[in-house]
Amino acid sequence: MLTFVLRRFLEALLVLFLIVTATFFMVRLVPGGPFDREKDIPEVTRQQLEAYYGLDKPLPVQYLNYLGRLVQGDLGTTFKYPGWTVNEIIARKLPVSVELGALAMGIALVLGIGAGVLAAWRPGSATDTVPMSLAMLGICLPTFVLGPLLILVFGLKLNLVNVMGWNLPQDRILPALTLGLFYAAYIARLTRSSMLEIRGEDYMRTARAKGLPEARVYLLHGLRNGLSPVVSYLGPALAGLITGSFVVETIFNIPGLGRFFVQAALDNDYTMVLGCVLFYAALIIVFNLISDILLVWLNPRRKLA
Amino acid sequence: MKPFGEKAAPVAGRSLGADAWRRLRANRMAMGGLVFTVLVTLACVVGPWLLPHAPEAQNLDLGASGPSAAHWLGTDVLGRDLLARILSGGRISLLVGVLATTVALVIGVSYGLVSGYAGGRTDRLMMRFVEIIYSMPFTVFVIILMVYFGRNLGLIFVAIGAVEWLTMARIVRGQVLGLKEMAFIQASRSLGQHPLNIMTRHLLPNLMGVIIVYATLTVPGVMLLEAFISFLGLGVQPPQTSWGDLIRAGAESMEEYPWLLIFPSLFFSATLFSLNFLGDGLRDALDPKNG
Amino acid sequence: MRFLLAIHVLALLSGCGPRRTRVEMADVVGIIIIGNGSDPADLDPQITVGLVEFDILTALFEGLTATDPVTCAPTPGVAESWTHNADHTAYTFTLRPDARWSNGDPVTAQDFVFSYERILSPAFAAEYASLLFPIKNARAFNAGEITDFSQVGVKALDAHTLQLEMEGPTPQLPTLLSHNATFPVHPATILKYGKMTDRNTRWTKPGNMVSNGPFVLADWNINERVFVKKNPQYWDADTVRLNGISFLPITNQNTEERAFRSGQLHITDSVPLSKRDGYRDADSPDLHIDPWLATYFYLLNARKPPFDDVRVRHAFNAAIDRQALVDTVTRGGEPVADTIVPPYTTGYQTPPSPIREDVALARRLLAEAGYPGGEGFPKVELLYNTSETHRPIAEALQKMWHDNLGVDIELVNQSWPVYLNRRKNGEFDIARAGWIADYNDAGTFLTMWTSDSGLNHTGWANATFDQLIKDAEQAGDPQQRLDILHRAEAVFLDELPIVPLYYYTRIYLKRPEVKGWTPNILDLHPYKYVYLKTDTDDEGHVDGLLPPAPTQSPNPANQEPSTKN
Fold first, then answer.
1. Which chains touch B (3 or more CB pairs under 8 A)?
2. How far apart are CA A281 and CA B98, in angstroms?
3. Does A173 touch chain C (CB under 8 A)?
4. Beta bridge partners of C76
């Protein structure tokens, strides 16, 4: 187990290095620099700025300089917001995005697994078709439609929650729902099909033959094995949540990292893009590792590889 | 990440297609999905030629107007007929969906085939590569690609396809690992057949079920991704439009001109619904255990 | 997670019933909540270049001069008075003895010398250093040709007397000194957190910053808010009636409008296109549309066919219906534009425009240029940056040109840096552009079209025009200068390397309790005069609190304008 985690950690470092390298050179392919303004700045000023930020050096040198600072944990200054370092922005904004992501993931898991288990209990009955049709709806509505719709109903018409912001506990409800429902729907579908498959397995028959109550067999033995696909889905789901959080953070004006992530790519803010990419990649890697370990725990027949 | 198909046992017999079709026909939801998908596709392909209004014809004096006899689904802010725009936007959305899925399938299937068939060290290396790419926050790469290469439609397909092939590769590889131990593959091998031959002649036909199912489920995913790109303002260039683009515009004015959101969303969601039901139905139909 | 959710649901239920909105609570404590579109890039007045930053910085800092919210003319700021010689080449400013930094230190002439050395230092790389180039030897110092700052024309005669020597006649200097680039910074604070020329130190953080304006920085969390509170040390603190200002960076216009509607904002940055009719039709007192000294236009690339032909440029100008565009697309009450300088620019007489909206004329011109009915017309690209506003405008014009001239135009939508880069490199046929004046002066719209200007992205060059602009810059008499500019614009409009579309309006939502917010064509709203008054019995004249008329006559001149995407 320890060697497994250690090996994965070393691999993760290699992966992060490759990602940083690829991103570093890709963002430089985009035309235009971080100091492009509509009004022209004098050439001498541009040179001064580029010298200040080390952008006047050849690209490979800049790359090595960046790696050198990165090793020390310094992600640099953003070009768009010279008053802030990338480290500062990530430190301040990541907790918000993580909270939003965790709440959304929580909603997705609770609703998704619940609905999926319910649906697979009596396939074809109303307890199957109703939640599954709802889940389908969840998959088919883009977040930028669902979000404003929820605001319209609960914020403006019913006046139950604020239409934007991230100050009060209830400010979390709509954004987390908006972000979580899509994944709840997907997880519900995964759970249902996996549970259906499991029901026919030998060990389930054995358990039933032992005279255990059906519900107990179904929930205890079934769920433990039936959750594998859901757990494997956690990594990709997290990647999706990150993307989705941009939309949700924009619509609800939530001060999270998602907005920086996408905007920095549109603004040629090299250091910010690199910082975000690095951070999110690390997050995804960690999640994949956790889900691999969970899979083994759920299903000891699997091997850690 | 193998929600379906992983355990589908290989069936080499001829009756697979017929059997599956029989099972599919019995599934009302799936058949409904199939019929609707075909109808919408037909409407999008043929519709723009039959409608009295061109999708790009503007009427600034009219502006945004609700459904009427002249414009069945109303008009947008520039006085363009919404139905015409939905149908021509559907062409783009469906095209994006189908082409990106094709790209994803071609890359994913060949990658998975090679990796699974080769096995051993090659397989481990190839799968590790897939995992590396899996860890990348792909949205940013898509955005950088779009910004760099300008917004051309072909590139949107390729970019999206390049995101979606990973899952396919993993599924196919998993299947091949199981298949290549089967007697008929072993037999071909011992007869000295060329690996390429084995892959295309023997493995591929046995993978068709999984591939078809995955394709039906990928198309809606791609269409959603296209909608997200439209939300960023990076989608198709006007006067072309797509469903994602129409929905984005509609969401901006949902209180004033609700029809601009409702009708495109209906088309979009109903199509995704249909494709998903069809995909589910196909999965059930192609799974021999359900026979 | 279920538990967390339960807490949230409980909190939601207990929040039911009549709730006081955020603005109602803010009204009680005298805090105004403002949507300002985006985050400030920085709060160092010598680094920032944008309008968003300028707005916040005028609350935090004060330059030698300030701006009158009605006339937009310079008024005394830190300097209580100033004198100049006959040809405006030397100025002496007398600083208020009671001007103080927020930590109680007096604001001295030496502070200004330090500040000007900082912004002009090559190592500091300030983008707005050029604003100070009218000062003697400032340009040479910034370029590194002089390393001794004492040779630059900035001298502290004593703690409260500052002398500025200029390179040449600079009648516009007092206006220039109200710009954030010329604001003073507190030397001890700067040096406490780094060297004078360090760009990214922690001195701009709440708790660290020392400033000299009507407000001080209390909180700055990026992507969340900038909060400033009243500065008791400010020399004119008695005039300041707000206890604080909360600036919220809401990037999405629809989100901002919903926030305003549900009582979370006093003032918005803009109004979404789709909401404008609704507010107007309801005669909402919250909707404000102010004229703005700004023009929206398209650039035509005069370097290459087809727009190197003046007939084609005129044809494109004649073939569109600007009124339909503003009535149905922008819907912000914008006046249609047929000149580059807005006609309400003070003291300026616009030349008669040669633009006639006449489709038959347009077709004839295009045929004369060799493209009858659009035949043989090359495929041209219209470049614009991604935005909710630019796109429908481009779509409408694309269609008008297609229908009226038979030409095909491809729309190319790019992110901001890519769009700017292509514009600067001339990689476009038609490109969207806008120009917002910092100063109430015709020159700001005209000098950028000279052949050697870095801002003239059209590639259009005209010797007569260049000469007229040069003459205007050397004209001693302000009226004579404006007359020459008038002739220059006439030349420009004859050649027409642009398609003027409309003059911008400032369109925003403002709650009725916000008083002392004076509309003006530069969109300047000094916060020291703004206050909140909720009772409806009108006191008659809300602007009675404005200071007496400025002691100096306005000297608007040709300044660096700022722009808005």
1. A, C
2. 29
3. yes
4. C65
Topology of domain B98-241, CATH:
MetI-like fold (1.10.3720)
Q: With bands split at pLDDT 50, 70 and 90, how would you rate the model's confidence at C537?
A: very low
CA distance linking residue C451 with residue C466, whole number of Å: 7
Backbone dihedral region of C144: left (phi > 0), alpha (psi from -120 to 50 degrees) or beta? left
Shortest CA distance to A96 belongs to which of C522, C224, B208, C433? C224
pLDDT of residue C557 exceeding 50: no
> Could you give the ipTM of this predicted complex?
0.84
Do residues B274 and B33 touch, judged by C-beta distance below 8 A?
yes
What residues in C contact A33, CB-CB < 8 Å? 417, 421
Q: Tell me how far CA of residue C123 lies from CA of A47, A49, C114, C138, in angstroms.
A: 10, 8, 15, 14
Return the DSSP state at A77: B
* DSSP codes joined into one string, C438-507: SSS-THHHHGGGSTT-TT-TT----HHHHHHHHHHHH-SSHHHHHHHHHHHHHHHHHH--EEEEEEEEEE
Q: Is B140 on the interface with C (CB under 8 A)?
A: no
* CB interface of B with A, residues 154-193, below 8 Å: 167
For the stretch C270-315, pLDDT in tens is 999 889 988 999 999 999 999 999 999 999 999 999 999 999 999 9
Which residues 6+ apart lie within 8 Å of B102 measured at CB?
B161
C310 sits in which H/E element: helix C310-318
pLDDT band at C341 (very low <50, low <70, confident <90, very high): very high
The answer for C 408-447 residues in CB contact with B (under 8 A) is 410-415, 418
Max mean pLDDT among A147-151, B191-195, C407-411, C492-496 falls in: C492-496
Q: Which two tokens stand for residue B103?
A: 């790209």
C209, two tokens: 């910053």
Interface test with A, best of B27, B36, B127, B139 (most A CBs within 10 A): B139
Distance between C190 CA and the closest CA of chain A, angstroms: 14
Residue-by-residue DSSP string for B29-74:
HHHHHHHHHHHHHHHHHHHHHHSSS-TT---TTT-SB---SSSTT-
- A136: DSSP letter: H
C79 confidence band (pLDDT: 50, 70, 90): very high
Interface of B with C in 147-186 (CB under 8 A): 147, 150-151
Which residue in chain A has the smallest CA separation from C129? A45
Q: What is the pTM of this model?
A: 0.85
Query: What pLDDT score does B171 carry?
Result: 81
B79 CB within 8 Å of a chain C CB: yes
Calculate the average pLDDT of chain A.
83
Q: Which amino acid is at C565?
A: N
Residue A68, amino acid: G
Contact residues, chain A, for B277 at CB < 8 Å: 136
Report how many helices (DSSP H) and strands (DSSP E) chain C contains, helices first. Answer: 17, 17
Write out chain C residues lying below 8 Å of A172, CB-based: 8
Cβ neighbours, 10 Å, residue C358: 12
Strand stretches in C185-286, DSSP E: 215-221, 225-230, 244-248
pLDDT-based confidence at residue B43 (cuts at 50, 70, 90): very high
Strands C380-385 and C409-414, by their bridges, are parallel
Q: Where are the domains of chain B?
A: 98-241
Task: Identify the closest residue of chain B to A270 by CA–CA distance.
Answer: B144
Strand C31-35 relative to strand C225-230: parallel, antiparallel, unpaired?
Answer: unpaired
Q: What is the pLDDT of residues A91-132, one digit of tens each?
A: 988 889 889 999 999 999 999 998 888 888 887 788 888 888
CA distance B34 to B51: 24
